[in-house]
Each structure stands twice: as structure tokens, then as C-alpha cells.
Amino acid sequence: MEFGLVELSRLQFALTAMYHFLFVPLTLGLSILVAIMETVYVMTNRPIWRQMTKFWGTLFGINFVLGVATGITMEFQFGMNWSYYSHYVGDIFGAPLAIEGLMAFFMEATFVGLFFFGWDKLSKVAHMIVTWLVALGSNFSALWILIANGWMQNPVGAEFNPDTMRMEMTSFFEVLFNEVAQAKFVHTVSAGYVTAAIFVLGVSALYLLQDRHKDLARRSIAVAAAFGLASALSVVLLGDESGYSASHTQKMKLAAIEAMWDTEPAPASFTLVGFPDQEARETHYAIHIPWAMGLIGTRSLTEEIPGINELVAESEAKIRRGIIAYDALMTIREQRGDAPAEARFVFEQNSDDLGYAFLLKKYIDDPREASEAQIKMAADDTVPGVFPLFWAFRIMVALGFSFIAVMLYFFVRASFYRMQFPRWSLYAAVAIIPTPWIAAEMGWFVAEFGRQPWTVDGVLPTALSASHLSIADLLITLAGFILFYSVLFVIEVSLMVKYIRKGPYQDVAETEAWQARHEHRLRTHDGQGPFASTPAE
Questions:
Q1: Nearest-5° Cα angle at 390, 269 to 446
Q2: Is the pLDDT of residue 226 over 90?
Q3: CA distances (Å), 269 to each of 243, 246, 301, in order?
Q4: Please, which residues have CB within 8 angstroms of residue 348's CB and are 6 or more apart in sequence?
Q5: Is it the case that residue 534 has pLDDT exceeding 60?
Q6: What's the Rg (C-alpha) of the chain?
Q7: Helix %, strand %, coil % for the chain, to 5?
Q8: Where are the domains of the chain?
Q9: Taking the CB of residue 149, how many other CB atoms lie within 10 A of it?
């Protein structure tokens, strides 16, 4: 198979996946924020909260539809561009995706309709429950997708069957409670909450700058700041959990993110900035923070974090054991049911490293005939691109800490300064609207690019996963996706801008009725009701 075909397949999937992820974080976060706003409306019965729920719910709906459209297209690529991957691990990878479609997607799709068309048909409490079910469905959808992705990062609960030549599930619960999947889920949804909070903050700040919808804007900022501050703090804390998980499930990814070429004495330092040079295997102009990486990666002062060079040597040893497993597998395949027990025993002893033998297929058809030079090249291939990983991670982290500072500032202003915000802070809130998407895309880049050269870490190389398509097929479909998604992006932005400019819909009748009731309560309290004061008092 031409390696250019694999690269084009990767490019196509990366573009569609990262484009789809433009919509996912905002959908996750807005669903929760809208549910919180409607809960306040039910508790207070104040029309402004209903107005807020409808306005932000409309923007949620636009984003939700575009997310669904791009997500469905992306999932079909597994069969189109990655057919061997689908055949090899479909029994495991397909299970959580099927559950996501049958449970979470239908749940949120059903209740989204009730959210938009049930305002006058459901009671206030019933409609609030519907809104929370929409939010729950959106987050359940993310859970099952991240369980599938987490298995690709840490393939537990499955083993290779030499008779069927496929990976088969051995424990659904291990797949479900995979530590990588759980860490990725809470980290990803928290990032989505921050994205929505920044979006609500920025749009509300714009309204205040324009002297429009000030009541809605101030309340929206108060909700977004509190919600966003909690979410931004959780992103950092849960990111630490992901780093700890990577220290024993994806050691090469962690070493590449840190550009740690050699194993350092414990506790390892954290490289704040630097310029990794993959050819020279060193990082130029590096600035280190002592002990920090050791604490993050191992949560101890005595445990080492292996460097890239040591991990490459380990990969070379795994490739050699993988060749032994491959040789035993070929014996089993050739003799089928008559294969000697010794061959099956040898295979079982070395089967965990079979995937490393497959790395050699980039250079030679039969891994058993690989030369020493080819084995060393395959071992070197286990190192992902260090420079882009190193800087993508640091951009993500820097933005993450900046979100904490922004949310803390607006939370303090909203809580202790009567929701009065300096104009410079409002301009800043508008300017940073794109930044959470940048952080989210950097996070996905680190997760997916850092797994290379594997589609399923340690099990199936990316170079073997792609379908047998022609270059022309991929170029045509790639161009089609770019054109189609560009149109969708224009539609998305146009609709969002249109409804933001239009502003919230105001239910005049309900507002006037509430004001009348409110004024009546004030008059009653001021001397016309049972709690009135007597002249003597």
C-alpha cells in the first residue's frame, strides 16, 4: 500500500474530525447553561430567565444541528477510509458507538424537539426536565464516543484471536471503565463547559458595549462566570489526571509532549519552553521547572519517567518479540486446526507485542525477513512528531490557565461589584471568544497525533488501517468534504451572527403580567396588605 494513501486518509479524517469538534464543545456547554437558566426561571418565575433560556437555547439548537450533520459524515469514514481498521477492531470499537447512537443520540434528538416546541404544551417543571434530559443526552453522547476513543489510546478488555485474525472483546466492563476513557471524558466535557461560558460571556459583553439587552447580558455574565470558573478549574485538575494516566498507559506520548529525550533522575523537571530538535534528539534553549514533571506524571518524588531514547530501545525489543509472535501466528494460520500446541503456546507468550511486528510492514511484506536496519527504523517510527506535540500542549495549557484568570475576574465583578464591568474588560471578553476552540483543537491534536504511529496503541499501526482506495478517490472526496464543510461553516456563522444581532425574543404579555404581580406585592408590603404598619408604629 502506498504510504501517500495513508497520509491522505489521515488528512481527510483529521480535517473532518477537527471540524466536527468546532461544534461539540459549545453544544456540551450550552446544554448545561441553558438547563441552569431554565431551572432559575422555574424557581423564581421571572420572565427574564425564560427569555435567557430561549435565546441561548436558540444558539444551542443551531450549533446542535451542525454538529449532528458533521458527526454522521465523520462516522461513515470508518467504513470508507479505514475498512481494515473497522474489520480488525470493529467488535470492540463499534460497541460504544452503537450504544451512543441508540441511546444518547436518540435521547437528545427526541428531547431537543420537545425543548423547542413544548413551551406552550408542557408545564414549567416538565419543560425544565426536558431541558435537563437534552443536556444529559448530549453529555452521554460524548461519554460513549470517548469510551471508543479511549480504547484506541489504551486497548484493555480485548485480545487477538489467531483463528479469526481479529481483535475480540473479553470484558465490556474493562472497556467501559478504561481509565483513559474516564479521564478523557471529564476533561473534554469540562473543556466544553469552558467554551460555552466564554461564548456566553463574550456575546453578553458585546450587548453591554452596544447598550442593548443589559438585564439579560448581566445575568448571563454572572451565570457564565460562576459556571466557567468551576469548569476551568476542573479542566486543569482533570488534565493533571490525564497526565498521570499517560505516565503508565502511553509513555511515549508523554515523553514526546515533554520532549524528554533521556530518562532523568527522579523527580523529572518540566520543560516550560524550548525548541525540540528530533534529528539531534535534544531541546534547544530549554527552560526547566525542577520536580514539576515528576509530580505531575508520577505523583511521587522517587519514580522515574522514561525518556524517548529508552522507550525506542524498549520498542525495538518489542518488535523482536512481535516477530516471534508473527512467526507462530503464520504457523497457526497455515496449519489451521492441526497447528502444534507449541506454536499456540509461543504465540500466547508473545502476542502482546504482535502489533510491533506489524510496524515492519511499512518496509517489508514479511516481518520475519526484516533486516536489523529495518527493525531500528520501525522502532524509531514509534516516536511521534515531538515539536508540534510539545508546542500544541503548551498552547493548550497556557490558554487553560488564562481562562481561570478571566472567569475569576468576571466572577468577582459580578458577585462583589454589582455586575459593573469596565469597558476594557468587555472588549477583552469579546476578543477571547475564539480562544477556547483553539485550546480544544490543540487538545485533540495532542491526543490523536501523540498516538502515532498507532491507530490502536500498540495493537494496529495506522499504516495498515486504511482502505485500498486510489489517490484520485481520496483527492476527490477530500475536495468534496472541504467544499461541503466550508458551506456548512458559512451557514453556521451566518445563523449565529443573525440571531445574536437580532437579540432575545421578549414575551411582552408574560413580562407585563410579572411586573403587575411584582408591583402588587410591593404595594402590599408597603402598607396595603396584612403586613402593613399601623400609624402608631
A1: 120
A2: yes
A3: 14, 17, 11
A4: none
A5: no
A6: 27
A7: 75, 5, 20
A8: 3-250+386-509, 264-305, 308-380
A9: 23
Beta bridge partners of residue 166, listed in sequence order: 161
Q: How far apart are CA 324 and CA 147, in angstroms?
A: 32
Displacement of CA 101 from its chain's centroid (Å):
18
- Poorest-pLDDT segment among 98-102, 176-180, 466-470, 530-534: 530-534
Q: CA end-to-end span of the chain, whole Å?
A: 95
The answer to whether the beta carbons of residues 527 and 533 sit under 8 Å apart is yes
Q: Tell me how far apart the alpha carbons of residues 62 and 60 are, in angstroms, rounded to a whole number.
A: 6
The DSSP secondary structure of 52-70, one letter per residue, reads: HHHHHHHHHHHHHHHHHHH
Q: What is the mean pLDDT of residues 337-349?
A: 83
Q: Which three cell numbers stand for residue 300?
A: 511521587
In 3D space, the residue among 163, 317, 177, 179 whose CA is nearest the CA of residue 238 turns out to be 179
Instruction: Find residue 275's DSSP bridge partners.
Output: 284
pLDDT single digits (tens) 424-477 = 999 999 999 999 999 999 999 999 999 999 999 999 999 999 888 888 888 898
Cell of 388: 508540534
* Three-state SS at 454: strand
Pairing of strands 282-289, 454-456: unpaired
Which ranges of 250-291 does DSSP label H, i.e. alpha helix?
251-258
Residues in the chain: 537
